[in-house]
Amino acid sequence: MIVEVVGGTDEVPEVQVVDVDDLTRLHLAVGAVTDEEADQALQAAGLGRLVDGDNGVLDVAALRAAAEPKAGAADWGGQFDAMVASAAEKGWTADDGASLRVHVEPAASA
User: Which member of 19, 66, 84, 85 has the lowest number of beta carbons within 10 Å of its beta carbon?
Assistant: First the structure.
């Protein structure tokens, strides 16, 4: 699953959750926007925040709410829960487990 922050209409960054059925990976993809713009867009969308140019934090409940309606797999909820549990086991949680720490990568459209 990928959370993308990319330039939108009128140069206002847009946040979208894509590849929702691939729960073997999770990262934040940032397009041609500044770190400040990416952080503001993530917070405005309620999905999380940018820690720095290399790391972000995504809210688990908000991520699930944004991704689940787009999911195609019948057992998606269980797979999502397993992804979150795996991240917790690896120490990739924040905010007492309510958020996941993720790496930032360039967006494909960047």
Answer: 85
